[in-house]
Sequence to fold (181 residues):
Amino acid sequence: MKNKVMAVLISLFCAVSLCFAEGTKGVKVKKGEPMPNIAAMGIDNKAHSVKTVSSIPKTKGVLVVVFASWCKACIDEIKQLVKAKKLLDEKGIRVLLVNAMEDDYDRLEQILKELDLQGFYLIFDKNGYIADDQLGLVMGKEKRNGRLPFACVLDNQGVIKEIIYDPEDDFVGQVLRVYGL
Fold:
């Protein structure tokens, strides 16, 4: 009986490990390394990048969030950020949102109207260069096979402090803890 229980536990551990490894397979960014200087045009028709957002006075860190309008968990994550905007500003944490390979612009426009993204930096990754080539999220031609939501917590020099694949229910609290706040 003990051997069967042990075999089941080992099998379960291996299955969970394999799922996590598959979910992170191909990701090019790593904790402790500099974030690629992702850059693109924003919703405000200005170019934004990790460097430009990091250089804003009193910035202690930058949170880079890759999302898509079809990803419910992504939208839930952004809603949390919108609610905590004032707190994030007070703590010196800037948010750079990266919309990944959107194929339904009407839906995106509707969602952006529903969310109050004033003060957030939102850039568009129309062809997948940021998500696929720079970050290695493997969004691919199918668009919906990547690992979203995806967030990188950066220090004010652009070094990755933490990578968040599966945000907690209290995503903002999770981010603040990474900064020791």
User: Anything to note?
Assistant: Residues 29-178 form a domain with the Glutaredoxin fold (CATH 3.40.30.10). The chain has a mean pLDDT of 78. The longest strand covers residues 93-100.
